[in-house]
Design a protein that fits this description.
Blueprint lengths: L2 H13 L16 E6 L6 H9 L2 H4 L3 E6 L5 E3 L38 H7 L13 H12 L3 E5 L6 H12 L6 E6 L22 E6 L5 H12 L6 H11 L3 H19 L5 H13 L4 H6 L4 H12 L6 H10 L5 H8 L5 H11 L4 E4 L2 E3 L3 H10 L2 H16 L6 H10 L3 H8 L7 H12 L5 H12 L9 H11 L6 H18 L3 H17 L3 H12 L8 H18 L2 H16 L5 H8 L7 H21 L2 H17 L3 H17 L6 H8 L6 H15 L2 H7 L4 E3 L2 E3 L6 H17 L3 H18 L9 H10 L3 H15 L5 H17 L3 H17 L3 H18 L5 H21 L2 H14 L19 H11 L4 H8 L3 H15 L7 H12 L8
Parallel strand pairs: 1-5, 1-6, 2-4, 4-5
Antiparallel strand pairs: 2-3, 7-8, 9-10
Helix pairs in contact: 7-8, 7-9, 12-16, 13-14, 13-15, 13-16, 13-17, 14-15, 14-17, 17-18, 18-19, 20-21, 21-23, 22-23, 23-24, 23-25, 24-25, 25-26, 25-27, 26-27, 27-28, 27-29, 29-30, 29-31, 30-31, 31-32, 31-33, 32-33, 33-34, 33-35, 35-36, 35-37, 36-37, 37-38, 37-39, 38-39, 39-40, 40-41, 41-42, 41-43, ...
């Protein structure tokens, strides 16, 4: 049953629109009972709050009571100014188990409300000081309030008399009437019977049960993103949150608050000034990790609950619960008994008691554990050391007898049992893909006194596949220390250094350090006569995506890698270099790349070979997207992501999904794109793509502060944004273009020209001209806006020369755009219009709808400027085309661009096309101009920035904003976004100028 369903039923029952016989009349309304069950912390009270906020619930007499474990009956309306407590319905009073009043006579009266007045009439049932049972108080409240809505929370604490009273009420419910009863199913005295016994419900009573389920991973991500920031919540962090909290909302929120506080404490006050600002932004960008969840501890609420329930068990039964805490995963009854040291029926009896006491539960058939895994951690922390070690040793011995042996679990228990030698022996058998195994390997390598050979062997196990698999933050630190160990064999050092370099370079974004380690690894492996691994190091250095090397240097490394791979005779090494050559050729617009991609061995028999093919497919798909071959890129991307998943390379999967984000932005698939980006913005492999796409979306909306926040972090040298030193080269080129456009939009022309010169010099040094597709037009526009025509002309010439002979449709369209900008700046409007039209046609063929709309804007602007010299028909056609582009941009979500095009139409279209003189009477509705200004103001633009966009004066903008805020009833600009959207949905966009 969905929440919306029972909400509709309750609304129907309370408003007289029931579906039963005689619906609409008091006698014929269909009363409703909703039984809401859920464990502690599942959000039952949240639902009650939502119910009481419903208009139908506000319009009727209602009674809200909570049964407490102490026997106290509390009457509390969560929406009221204060909780009301029932003892003869006197505000501020509580009833204990025997009904004794705990309040004095001099308590202040509550403000009079309809509910308070109804409740107060219950005082007539007994004078102050008279001892009432909870049953008597509830009976008096029901008689005096005569509620149409009854909410009773925590029904599992109600006594038999109160339950009998409620059963009687439900056997003959009044009309209208609705009841909501909440309870914890695991604490019901009679399982499955929240009212103590079966109830003889009348036929006209609608009875429904709503079981609150834990949050799934998507729900956990949503809550975590709200509290911590979505960009700080990578997938492994969210997955660990879900696993440890079991998706219980209250546990999750408590845990997230602890994580937030721990992060604040860890970051400290920092320095002041500019350095502090950069530091703060870096701190905000730091993603949380799965390890943070493990280290932060257990929420107090959960810890107290599990400790109290365990203490309530008879002492002989507690070892079974301790065993569950030590095992830290669901286990069978025999395993729990063996670890607990129980004999015969002792273990079965103890387990039944633990289940009855809600300490443990059956998590799946025949498997028992804690409902919330974090509860095991709370209990484990309270176990005395000798008890804990004995339990661990029993668990290790039990698991060691199994075939195949679960070495990661065995190693963990030997370690917990204090048996270091047994732990390290078990660690030698660990694999490298299991997350728990990786953690144990890291701990073993952190342990001092390991012989050099064992240390080297464990380090190799940890290092191999580190770049593609799951690794913690500690992996990099450990490997850094190991490669400097002089006792490490040279051959092992080279291989470990290779994996360290790949980890630093590809995943940790430490490009300079990573390249340095890869160069050293290539030399060490070549000296150790391990050419296959040396080829892998060289192939990584040949990848053109990463900063710090020119294309010429990349090609040199590629040739060396191919030579080493051929000499090795190793299939995987040859596949790695073949994938690398295809990547280099694709990203330079060489047609031969497609042939090489087709020849990559998708059916490679070994996993390493398949991973290299997956890498090649994802990398060439990325190159194809930047070239403008979107359809063919889709095919490569689908194949690459699927192969990465099958070959155990989650990092490559994320790389592919990051590429898909940029492809979706280019091809106009903007619906839901921001949400998709937010889900990947904290993931290594996709973070840079996600940030840039979010920045581009914000730029099109006019949310310029968001553009600044989302653009990838970059070093600033003399105030210049040098993003191309901090992320993948093609992404950096796109980010630099967005940064230049932002500066131009904010009329910071000199800064834009400086940024343009810096970015273009970097691209020229890199030598991959096809990556200028999203950069070159803004570089040219920045130069012409700053009056630097020669610089703009030089950029166009270099771009054209760099694209000669290249298969790069997107960059070719961008070159036409650059020529249009240059011609328009020179006053050659007819030539500029022709170039804009050619560029628009080229973008239409890709397709790149956003760029196509911008080209139509440029062509239309030139046509309107040409005016009568062009002919009335062509001018009118230009007006019609611009009008269509406004609709296209609006549909995309590019409200800033749409507003700018509308302003162009108003400024240049023929007088006959404008509205008649005089101001239309909009009364209290916003005029189209006021709505347009308010919409831009809602994105955070200043009055001056809006004025520049709409060709208005800042004073006029100020007046429009003020009128819009007055008409919407908004006191500040912060509330404009939601209200503008709501007003437009209600009133629509009227016609006319509205100026």
């Amino acid at each position: 049953m969905y929440e919306q369903t029972w909400e509709r039923r309750l609304a129907s029952a309370l408003s007289g629109t029931g579906t039963g016989i005689g619906a609409g009349s008091g006698a014929g309304q269909e009363p409703t009972l909703v039984l809401v069950e859920g464990d502690a912390g599942m959000g039952k009270s949240r639902l009650v709050h939502r119910l009481l906020e419903m208009p139908q619930a506000r319009a009727v007499a209602r009674l809200v009571v909570t049964f407490q474990a102490s026997g106290t009956l509390v009457v509390a309306d969560p929406l009221g100014p204060e909780p009301r407590v029932g003892s003869s319905a006197v505000p501020g009073r509580r009833l204990n188990a025997t009904g004794t009043s705990g309040a004095g006579r001099d308590e202040p009266a509550e403000p009079a409300t309809a509910t308070a007045q109804n409740t107060a009439r219950g005082q007539d049932a007994a004078p102050l000081g008279v001892r009432l049972t909870a049953y008597q108080a509830l009976e008096a409240l029901l008689a005096s309030a005569r509620p149409a809505l009854l909410v009773a929370e925590d029904l599992h604490h109600a006594d038999d008399d109160c339950l009998a009273l409620l059963r009687g009420l439900l056997r003959e419910p009044p009309a209208p009437f609705a009841a909501v009863l909440t309870y914890r199913p695991e604490q019901l005295p009679r399982p499955g019977l929240p009212l103590g016994r079966a109830v003889d419900y009348p036929a006209r009573l609608s009875v429904v049960r709503w079981r609150l389920e834990p949050l799934d991973e998507r729900g956990v991500r949503s809550v975590a993103g709200e509290l911590l920031g979505a960009w700080r919540c990578p997938q492994d962090f969210v997955a660990r949150l879900r696993q440890r909290s079991a998706g219980v909302p209250q546990v999750l929120v408590d845990l997230l608050r602890m994580l937030r506080d721990a992060a604040d404490d860890r970051n400290g006050p920092g320095d002041s000034g500019c350095h502090r600002d950069v530091q703060d932004r870096d701190v905000q960008d730091r993603g949380f990790t799965a390890g943070d969840v493990d280290e932060v501890g257990v929420p107090v609420r959960l810890a107290e609950l599990v400790l109290e329930r365990t203490a309530a068990l008879p002492e002989p039964y507690r070892p079974v619960v301790w065993a569950a805490a030590v095992l830290d995963e669901p286990a069978g009854a025999q395993d729990l008994a063996a670890v607990a040291g129980c004999h015969g029926d002792e273990g079965r009896t103890a387990l039944i008691a633990a289940l009855a006491g809600s300490v443990l539960r059956e998590t799946s058939e025949g498997r028992y554990g804690f409902a919330v895994p974090l509860a095991a951690t709370a209990l484990y922390a309270e176990l005395p050391g000798p008890v804990r070690e004995r339990l661990h040793r029993r668990a290790a011995a039990m698991l060691a007898a199994r075939e195949p042996a679960p070495w990661a679990r065995i190693a963990r228990h030997w370690r917990g049992g204090g048996r270091t030698e047994d732990w390290l022996r078990a660690a030698e058998h660990l694999g490298r893909d299991d997350e728990a195994a990786v953690a144990l390997l890291e701990e073993a390598l952190d342990t001092g006194g390991l012989p050099a050979d064992k240390r080297g062997a464990l380090a190799l196990t940890l290092a191999r596949g580190a770049v593609l698999g799951r690794r913690s933050e500690g992996t990099t630190r450990i490997l850094r220390g190991i490669v400097e160990d002089p006792a490490l064999p040279a051959a092992d050092r080279g291989e470990i250094r290779l994996e360290l370099g790949l980890l630093l370079h590809n995943r940790k974004r430490c490009f300079e350090e990573g390249r340095s380690e890869l160069r050293r690894a290539a030399d060490e492996l070549a000296e150790a006569e391990r050419p296959a691994l040396a080829a892998r190091a060289m192939a990584a250095l040949a990848n053109p995506f990463f900063p710090g090397a020119s294309l010429e240097e990349n090609v040199t490394w590629l040739e060396r890698a191919e030579t080493a791979a051929e000499a090795s005779g190793d299939r995987a090494a040859r596949t790695a270099t073949a994938a690398c050559r295809a990547t280099v050729l694709m990203n330079t617009g060489d047609l031969d790349a497609w042939r090489l991609v087709a020849r990559l061995p998708r059916d490679s028999p070994d996993r390493a070979g398949r991973q290299q093919v997956a890498r090649g497919l994802c990398n060439t798909a990325n190159g194809a997207v930047y070239l403008g071959h979107y359809r063919r890129a889709d095919e490569l991307l689908t194949e690459g992501i699927e192969l990465a998943a099958r070959s155990g390379a989650p990092f490559l999967e994320r790389v592919g999904r990051g590429t898909a984000l940029f492809r979706d932005w280019l091809t106009g698939r903007w619906e839901g794109l921001a949400e998709r980006c937010t889900g990947l913005v904290a993931e290594d492999g996709s973070a840079s793509d996600a940030r840039v796409v979010l920045a581009l979306l914000a730029l099109a909306k006019g949310d310029w502060e968001a553009v600044r926040d989302w653009l990838p972090r970059a070093d600033r040298v003399h105030g210049t944004y040098r993003v191309y030193e901090s992320c993948e080269a093609p992404v950096a080129a796109t980010a630099a273009g967005a940064h230049i456009r932002l500066l131009l939009a904010r009329q910071q022309v000199d800064s834009a020209a400086e940024a343009a010169a810096s970015a273009w010099a970097w691209l020229a040094g890199k030598g991959v001209w096809v990556w200028g597709a999203e950069l070159a037009p803004w570089v040219v526009l920045a130069h012409v806006s700053a009056g630097q025509r020669q610089s703009a002309q030089r950029v166009v010439g270099e771009f054209a020369a760099g694209l000669t002979g290249r298969d790069a449709p997107s960059a070719t369209a961008a070159l036409l755009w650059c020529r249009a900008v240059l011609a328009e700046a020179d006053g050659e409007l007819a030539q500029a219009r022709g170039c804009f039209q050619q560029a628009g046609a080229a973008y239409d063929g890709l397709p790149h709808p956003y760029a196509r709309a911008l080209m139509a804007e440029g062509a239309g602007r030139c046509a309107l400027l040409l005016g009568v010299g062009l002919g009335a028909d062509e001018v009118e056609a230009a007006v019609e085309d611009l009008t269509r582009r406004v609709a296209e941009l609006t549909d995309l979500g590019a409200v800033w661009d749409a507003a700018r095009v509308r302003a162009t139409l108003r400024a240049y279209r023929p007088a006959a096309g404008r509205r008649p003189p005089g101001r239309p009477a909009y009364a209290e509705r916003m005029s189209p101009r006021e709505g347009e200004v308010a919409e831009l103001a809602a994105t955070g633009l200043t009055n001056r920035e809006i004025a520049a966009t709409l060709y208005l004066s800042p004073r006029t903008v100020e007046q429009h904003v003020a009128r819009a805020m007055r008409k919407l009833g908004i006191a500040s600009r912060q509330g404009l976004a939601k209200e503008v959207s709501r007003a437009r949905a209600t009133d629509g966009e009227g016609g006319g100028d509205g100026g």
